[in-house]
Amino acid sequence: MTTLIVVGVIVVILLFVIVGAYNRLVALDQSANQSFADIDVQLKQRQDLIPNLVDTVKGYATHEKSTLDAVIQARNAATSADSINDKVQAENMLSGALGKLFALSEAYPDLKANTNFLQLQADLSDIENKLAAARRFFNNAVSEFNAVRRQFPTVLFAGLFGFGSDKPFFDVGDGERATMSAAPPKVSF
Predict the structure, then answer these.
(1) Are 96 and 179 within 8 A, CB to CB?
(2) 93-123 burial by CB neighbour count: b if 16+ within 10 A, else e?
(3) What are the C-alpha distances in Å from 74 to residues 3, 70, 122?
(4) Are residues 94 and 177 in contact, defined by beta-carbon separation less than 8 angstroms?
(5) What's the rounded Cα separation, in Å, for the pair 25 and 19?
(6) Cys staple from 77: which of 33, 63, 65, 90, with CB 3.0 to 4.6 Å?
(7) Is 161 helix (H, G, I), strand (E, B) or coil?
(8) What DSSP designation does 187 have?
(9) Coil, strand or helix: which one is 172?
């Protein structure tokens, strides 16, 4: 009789641990998914600005077709990306193409002074700042999820609950990281 009570208490405690681990994983998974949705909103806003930006630049830099085409292709790739890894890769490609587009503006003083271009550039800069904050929040949520998923006793049950692998981070990518560390941005007045 005493043995049955002890076994019963152990089973109840084990059930509480399993249910607690499952609920924690679900909450952290939902937090990571929501934070990625926030990134997705910012990415969509950025992608929506790009056609206007390209059209504005086209009027001033008609012979820079390859740069404009690269921006459009990168935008289309970013728009059609589905998975987190695909979005990261496509958005890094888009960031590189946009950097070349803004570098183009240095060669065209009239474009640099165009109020529409300046407003689009300011809007894009604002979105980039929001994106950076959303990425930090997402990466923090992913880090917390991945850590809890690997902790004992959750690691024993995570695979059974469908949480068998780590979530990927949304990082700047190797190409962008190399660009950032290669040369600091040039500021001139």
Answers:
(1) yes
(2) bbbbbbeebeebbeebeebeebeebeebbeb
(3) 67, 6, 20
(4) no
(5) 10
(6) 90
(7) coil
(8) -
(9) coil
Smallest Cα–Cα separation from 48: which of 156, 110, 129, 120? Answer: 120
Residue among 29, 31, 25, 9 at smallest CA distance from 160 = 25
Give the closest residue to 33 by CA, choosing from 172, 170, 173. 170
39 burial type by CB count under 10 A (0-12 exposed, 13-18 middle, 19+ buried): buried
Instruction: Over range 33-58, report the average pLDDT.
Output: 88
With both helix axes pointing from N to C terminus, report the angle between 65-80 and 84-105 in degrees, rounded to the nearest 10.
160
For 101-122, the pLDDT digits (tens) are: 888 777 777 777 778 888 888 8
The 3-class SS string of 92-157 reads HHHHHHHHHHHHHHCCCHHHHHCHHHHHHHHHHHHHHHHHHHHHHHHHHHHHHHHHHHHCCCHHHH
| Tokens 């998923």 -> residue | 149
140 contacts: CB under 8 Å, gap ≥ 6: 35
CA distance 71 to 63: 15
Q: How many helices (H) and strands (E) in the chain?
A: 7, 0
Half-sphere exposure of 168 (CA within 13 A, CB side): 11
